[in-house]
Specification:
It is a single chain. By secondary structure, the protein is mainly α. 47% of the residues lie in helices and 7% in strands. The two termini are 30 Å apart.
C-alpha cells in the first residue's frame, strides 16, 4: 500500500463531486449567484491550507465510511443541504467515475494527469474568484513538487492501492451502461484498442537478443486490438495540454444519471463485513477524521441567506424510494465523532480548530509562477 495515495484519491473524488453538484444546481434552476456561492464555499473549504497540510502527510488510506464522512461535511460547507439518499447517490457516482478513470489510465503515472484535469476544471469554476483560484494553484504546485519525482514503480503502487480501495464497488451508473462501458453486474468493460501508453510501441513485434545484447531475430504476430501511437505526452506542468481526457467533466452535456445497486453476493458480503467487523485502525481513523473534519464546519444560513435542499434524483418521490430500497449492507452509515465526553480529545480538537481558523482571504495575484523545486530532485 502506498502512503502517498490519499491526496490523489481525495482530489479526484472531490473533482467528481463538484462536477455532479454543478450539473444538479443547473438542473434544479438554482439562481446563478447562489449556485456560484455554493461552489465557491465548497472549493474554499476543500482547498483550505491547513486541510491540505493534513491531507498531504504520508498516511494509509482508511475505510470508505471514513472518507464518506469527510465528503458529507465538505458537501455541507455551504448553505446547500443533501438528504441521506442524495448523499449516497452523490458518493456512488463520485467513486464509480474515478474507479473507471483509474482502470483506463494507460500508465500508472497518468493518474496524475487525471488529477490535473480535475483541478483544471475546478479552476474554471472559480475563475472569477482570484483568492480561491490561488488556493487551487497552491495545491497544484504541491502536487507537482511531491509527485513529479516519483518513479514508475511508485506510481504503480499508488494505482494498486486505489484499485484495492475500489475493488468491491460495483454500482451501475446509467451513463456507463448506455455507453456500454459497464456490464449489468456493475463491472467495467475495458477496451482492447486505442492509444498505447506514452513511451511504448504498438504490440505485434517480438525481438530476440543474444548474450551480447545484439538483436538476432524478429517475429511478428497479429493482435485483436486496433492500436495507435499517441501523438505527444500530456503536460505535467501547472498550465498545459493534458492530452488525456480522463477526469474531464462528463456532465458538461446534460444527460440524466441514475445509479442502481448491482451487488453480487460476494460484494454484498464484503460491504457487510466492512460495516460489522472491528477496524484494527479504528483509533487512527478517528484521529485522522478529527484532524480532517475540524475545518469542515457545516455552514448555517446567515443574514439574508436562505438555505436550500439539492436533490440528486429527478423527483422527491424517487429520492424517498431510493432511501427505502437501498440495501442495509450497502449503507455507508456516516460516522459521527463526539469528542465532548473525552476531555483529552476535546482539548486536542480545540487545539486543531484553533489552528484551522481561517481569516478572510484577500484577493491574491494569480500570475503564473514557476513550480517549487522538488525536494528529491533539487532545483530544475
Amino acid at each position: 500500500m502506498s502512503a502517498q495515495t490519499l491526496p490523489l484519491l481525495f482530489l479526484n473524488l472531490g473533482g467528481e463531486m463538484l462536477y455532479i453538484l454543478d450539473q444538479r444546481l443547473r438542473a434544479q434552476s438554482i439562481p446563478g449567484e447562489k449556485a456560484r456561492k455554493v461552489m465557491n464555499d465548497i472549493i474554499t473549504t476543500m482547498f483550505n491550507k491547513k486541510f491540505m497540510e493534513e491531507l498531504f502527510k504520508p498516511q494509509e488510506l482508511y475505510s470508505k465510511k471514513a472518507l464518506r464522512t469527510v465528503y458529507d461535511r465538505l458537501a455541507h460547507a455551504s448553505i446547500m443541504r443533501l438528504n441521506q439518499a442524495s448523499m449516497d447517490k452523490l458518493y456512488d457516482l463520485m467513486t464509480m467515475a474515478f474507479k473507471y478513470q483509474v482502470l483506463l489510465c494507460p500508465r500508472p503515472k497518468d493518474i496524475l494527469l487525471v488529477t490535473f484535469n480535475h483541478l483544471d476544471a475546478i479552476k474554471d469554476f472559480v475563475r472569477d474568484a482570484p483568492s480561491i483560484l490561488n488556493q487551487v494553484d497552491e495545491t497544484f504546485r504541491q502536487l507537482i513538487e511531491i509527485y513529479s519525482c516519483l518513479s514508475a514503480g511508485e506510481f504503480q503502487l499508488i494505482r494498486q492501492t486505489l484499485l484495492i480501495f475500489f475493488q468491491d464497488m460495483h454500482i451501475r451508473v446509467s451513463i456507463f451502461l448506455k455507453d456500454k462501458v459497464q456490464n449489468s453486474n456493475g463491472r467495467f468493460v475495458l477496451p482492447i484498442s486505442g492509444p498505447v501508453p506514452w513511451g511504448t510501441e504498438i504490440p505485434g513485434l517480438i525481438r530476440m537478443f543474444n548474450h551480447n545484447g545484439d538483436e538476432v531475430k524478429r517475429t511478428e504476430f497479429t493482435t485483436d486490438g486496433n492500436y495507435v501511437t499517441p501523438q505527444r505526452e500530456g503536460s505535467f506542468d501547472l498550465y498545459g495540454d493534458r492530452v488525456l481526457k480522463l477526469g474531464t467533466n462528463m456532465y458538461s452535456v446534460s444527460r440524466p444519471v441514475e445509479t442502481h445497486m448491482a451487488g453480487s453476493s460476494k460484494s454484498l458480503a464484503s460491504h457487510a463485513k466492512e460495516n460489522t467487523a472491528p477496524n484494527p485502525l479504528a483509533k487512527e481513523e478517528m484521529n485522522f477524521l478529527a484532524r480532517l473534519i475540524g475545518v469542515l464546519e457545516i455552514k448555517k444560513p446567515g443574514g439574508n441567506e436562505t438555505g436550500f435542499r439539492l436533490n440528486l434524483f429527478t423527483t422527491d418521490e424517487e429520492e424517498e424510494h431510493a432511501a427505502l430500497t437501498r440495501p442495509e449492507e450497502l449503507s455507508y452509515k456516516v460516522i459521527n465523532i463526539e469528542a465532548t465526553q473525552d476531555p483529552g480529545r476535546q482539548e486536542e480538537l480545540a487545539r486543531i480548530l484553533g489552528e484551522l481558523e481561517v481569516a478572510e482571504q484577500r484577493p491574491a495575484s494569480t500570475a503564473k509562477g514557476p513550480a517549487r523545486p522538488c525536494h528529491h530532485c533539487g532545483p530544475p
